[in-house]
Design goal:
This protein is mainly α and 193 residues long. Helices cover 57% and strands 0% of the residues. It folds into two domains: 96 residues, Cytochrome c-like domain (Cytochrome Bc1 Complex, Chain D, domain 2, Orthogonal Bundle); 81 residues, Cytochrome Bc1 Complex, Chain D, domain 2, CATH 1.10.760. The protein starts with a helix and ends with a helix. About 4% of the residues have low confidence. Bound molecules: heme C (2 copies).
Length: 193
């Protein structure tokens, strides 16, 4: 489903630009992001992350990792490949100013939420991601992020498929199970700033 949607968006984007990404203005490149990440940086597809409200540096790092092929994603590797350093910085600045995602506000399972909050406290997640999980510097915002995306990110760190600047995340998730990841994602998607 994600793959189909993303492929469609990507095709639309290439056709829309006449197949020529070269010479596009910065505004054109920023406009492309909306096809997948939503007009205001809030995506409606649970496998595509919300990007609004991310710290500027966190966005710069991830775009850089995608461009260099250090972080793998069919869609993002293709998009980032076209970005110069200056564009990458300008785009990150723009993205950081978009509104942060709204946390899920459903009748939450309090026991599950508390269990995950306890696990996050044990693992000191907030020491890097901020007490309200808003992120800072190269540490991404986690509050209000899509659960499915968070689970995939945590699995990627555990598997060594995603490596940041340091081994911080591999350390943080060591020994955690898929059940723990599901609970942590449940908590983070709902945590109130
Ligand atoms: C064709 C769909 C598509 C387009 C267009 C697209 N993205 Fe993405 N983006 C994705 C997907 C899918 C992921 C998650 C990939 C993964 O799991 O690593 C992602 C991930 C990201 C991330 C990482 C977020 C995080 O929390 O680590 C950033 C930053 C990002 N995109 C920014 C952009 C920007 C800026 C643009 C426009 C220049 C853009 N994207 C265009 C699909 C897209
Ligand atoms: C020592 C600092 C540190 C600690 C502790 C830490 N993180 Fe992180 N986290 C980071 C950094 C740095 C990144 C960005 C790494 C990269 O470039 O991929 C990150 C990235 C993430 C991401 C990817 C977000 C995205 O948008 O793609 C998730 C999810 C995450 N952390 C969750 C957690 C959870 C849950 C915990 C506690 C179990 C935790 N982190 C503990 C530093 C930390």
């Amino acid at each position: 489903m994600r793959r189909r949607l993303a492929a469609w968006a990507l095709a639309a984007l290439l056709v829309g630009s006449g197949g020529a990404a070269i010479g596009q203005s910065l505004q054109d490149k920023i406009a492309q992001c909306a096809a997948c990440h939503g007009a205001d940086g809030r995506s409606s597809d649970p496998r595509i992350p919300h990007i609004g409200g991310q710290p500027k540096l966190a966005v710069m790092y991830q775009l850089f990792f995608y461009r260099e092929g250090r972080r793998k994603s069919e869609e993002m590797n293709l998009i980032a490949k076209e970005l110069t350093d200056a564009e990458l910085t300008a785009i990150a600045e723009h993205v950081a100013k978009l509104p942060a995602p709204t946390p899920v506000a459903d009748a939450k399972d309090d026991a599950r939420y508390e269990r995950a909050a306890e696990l996050a406290a044990q693992r000191m997640c907030a020491s890097c991601h901020n007490a309200d999980f808003s992120g800072r510097e190269q540490m991404p915002r986690l509050a209000g992020q899509h659960e499915a995306y968070l689970v995939k990110a945590l699995q990627d760190y555990r598997a060594g498929a995603r490596v940041g600047t340091q081994a911080a995340m591999a350390e943080a998730v060591r020994g955690l199970t898929d059940g723990d990841f599901a609970d942590l994602a449940y908590f983070l998607a709902r945590v109130q700033p």
